[in-house]
């Protein structure tokens, strides 16, 4: 009886990539987790980290950082993306938003995640198809793209939209014209040097 031919292992299936999107805010920080496999997007989870306005600023920053760390530990994303700051008419509001965003980035980088940054118009362009889309339009497109039964909250939808934009490489349904504010997602990497006092 001739020996059986050597078995050939089937090619390994492509692995999905888990992405975490963050919509930073001092009062409410939205998060959205999706899996991407090729052009297929799958919803995993979304929600909000809320801070108590009666807390001190450091306490609120700590709440955001711990919340992000818990989300990373729970869902184990491979990459993350966060929305850039838009200039507010109120400089104090912009400053507070920047501190909340810094807390989120710090937590992501501390967890060893690469962090891509996308502008608001770039995210809207990637998800809706034009950079002037309303929040309601973003919610509706996020629901359609992820096959959700209803619209997610605005903060969660913005975070999911950020993750979707990252999954699409910041391009999505069409690239912003060169006359616009188009920027490729910048990558924030973990610094390896320690500064001594």
From TrEMBL:
Binding site for Mg(2+) 2: 83
Active site residues according to the UniProt entry: 23, 83, 155
Start-end of Low complexity biased regions: 186-197
Cofactor(s) needed for function: Mg(2+)
GO molecular function annotation: crossover junction DNA endonuclease activity; DNA binding; magnesium ion binding
EC number: 3.1.21.10
Keyword Nucleotide-binding (UniProt): no
Residue span of region Disordered: 175-197
NCBIfam families: ruvC
Family: Belongs to the RuvC family.
Role of this protein: The RuvA-RuvB-RuvC complex processes Holliday junction (HJ) DNA during genetic recombination and DNA repair. Endonuclease that resolves HJ intermediates. Cleaves cruciform DNA by making single-stranded nicks across the HJ at symmetrical positions within the homologous arms, yielding a 5'-phosphate and a 3'-hydroxyl group; requires a central core of homology in the junction. The consensus cleavage sequence is 5'-(A/T)TT(C/G)-3'. Cleavage occurs on the 3'-side of the TT dinucleotide at the point of strand exchange.
Protein known as: Crossover junction endodeoxyribonuclease RuvC
Natural source organism: Candidatus Proximibacter danicus
């Amino acid at each position: 009886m001739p020996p059986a031919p050597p078995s050939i292992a089937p090619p390994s299936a492509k692995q999905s990539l888990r992405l975490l999107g963050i919509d930073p805010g001092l009062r409410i920080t939205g998060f959205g987790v999706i899996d991407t496999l090729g052009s297929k997007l799958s919803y995993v989870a979304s929600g909000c980290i809320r801070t108590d306005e009666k807390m001190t600023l450091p306490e609120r920053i700590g709440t955001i950082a711990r919340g992000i760390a818990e989300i990373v530990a729970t869902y184990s994303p491979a990459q993350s993306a966060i929305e850039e700051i838009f200039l507010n008419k109120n400089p104090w509001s912009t400053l507070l938003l920047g501190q909340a965003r810094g807390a989120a980035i710090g937590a992501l980088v501390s967890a060893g995640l690469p962090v891509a940054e996308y502008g608001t118009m770039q995210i809207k362009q990637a998800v809706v198809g034009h950079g002037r889309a309303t929040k309601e339009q973003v919610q509706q497109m996020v629901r359609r793209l992820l096959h959700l039964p209803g619209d997610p909250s605005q903060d969660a939808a913005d975070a999911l939209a950020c993750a979707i934009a990252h999954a699409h490489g910041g391009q999505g349904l069409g690239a912003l014209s060169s006359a616009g504010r188009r920027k490729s997602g910048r990558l924030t990497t973990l610094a390896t040097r320690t500064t001594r006092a």
